[in-house]
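Reopening: structure tokens for the iron/sulfur cluster complex, inputs below.
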Amino acid sequence: MAFKINQDCIACGTCVDSCPVGAIVEKGESFSITANCTECSACLDACPVNAIVE
Ligand code: SF4
Ligand code: SF4
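Re-run output (same inputs, fresh job):
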């Protein structure tokens, strides 16, 4: 998959709600993008610290 969440993530959870296909999941205290991602870019714009990168 092309989109990833890097170490700048502050675990705010905003991206989870921004994803139209529910592709971002919480794993313990971190978040990750699953294979369901359609690369729509919605989460990139939603993340307050730009932790989601292509
Ligand atoms: S790029 Fe789109 S489909 Fe992929 S995780 Fe982000 S919001 Fe969801
Ligand atoms: S919106 Fe950004 S900072 Fe918040 S949980 Fe998602 S990747 Fe992390």
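The chain has a mean pLDDT of 95. Residues 5, 9-15, 31, 46-47, 49, 51-52 surround iron/sulfur cluster (ligand 2) (CB under 6 Å). Marking as resolved unless the reporter disagrees.
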